[in-house]
Amino acid sequence: MDIDQLIRSLAADNAHRVPRVGAVLTMALLVAAPLSILIFATFLGVRPDVMTAMRNPFFDMKFAVTLSLAIPAIVVSLHLSRPEALMRGWGWLLLFPVGLLAVAIGSEAMMAPAMPMTMRLMGKNSRVCLVAIPAMSLPLLAGALFGLRHGAPSHPALTGALAGLLSAGLAATLYASHCTDDSPLFVATWYTLATALVTAIGAAVGSRVLRY
Question: Is residue 84 part of a domain?
């Protein structure tokens, strides 16, 4: 038997296939999502005036911002799960929510203000926001880290931070349907602070559990 035939025979005998990181990450997030939804349904719930709120473009903007964070963060984290991957050329994907918020804040500034800027900035739910988004993010973060462990990231802390970003983005999408503060200033301040907290947790945990 020549070497090529031997290699083909050994490959044929090995029926085990390592699942792709993307598939494992997807399944892990699907398993974790019901826990986040349970937290949402138990302690928060959809705002009572949601049908009226849907006519407000700034209400819809919140979902555009949170999803434009979560989806690119998933893409970049999967990229970083490969050992040879670098962040260079990928970071711009994470600027989508920044651009959307900048446009929304500018649009709100050109409108006749319904309330003073300080009230729009502080809102009524800042404390709830800072607790709810991280709380709903934790099951998703655990799932994301579990999924990304099936890769071989050469930058575990950075990959963990991306896991935090995607988890916070998904959790913030849930929270947005409860939050009655629709001002882009509120979103830019309190959603960002809550996301930064989850990102820091993801980086700290990821530096340990994603190391290989």
Answer: yes
Host H or E run for residue 205: helix 192-209
Q: What's the CA gap between 167 and 134, in Å, rounded?
A: 9
The predicted-structure confidence for 44-82, as pLDDT tens digits, reads as follows 999 999 999 999 999 999 999 999 999 999 999 999 998
Number of domains forming the structure of the chain: 1
Task: Give the domain extent around 25.
Answer: 19-210
Tens of pLDDT, residue by residue over 157-202, are 999 999 999 999 999 999 999 999 999 999 999 999 999 999 999 9
> Does residue 10 sit within a domain?
no
Q: At which residue do the structure tokens 């964070």 appear?
A: 69
In a domain, 5, yes or no: no
The answer to whether residue 123 is domain-embedded is yes
What b-and-e string marks burial along 37-63, b requiring 16 or more CB atoms within 10 Å of the CB? eebbeeebeebeeeeebeeeebbebbe
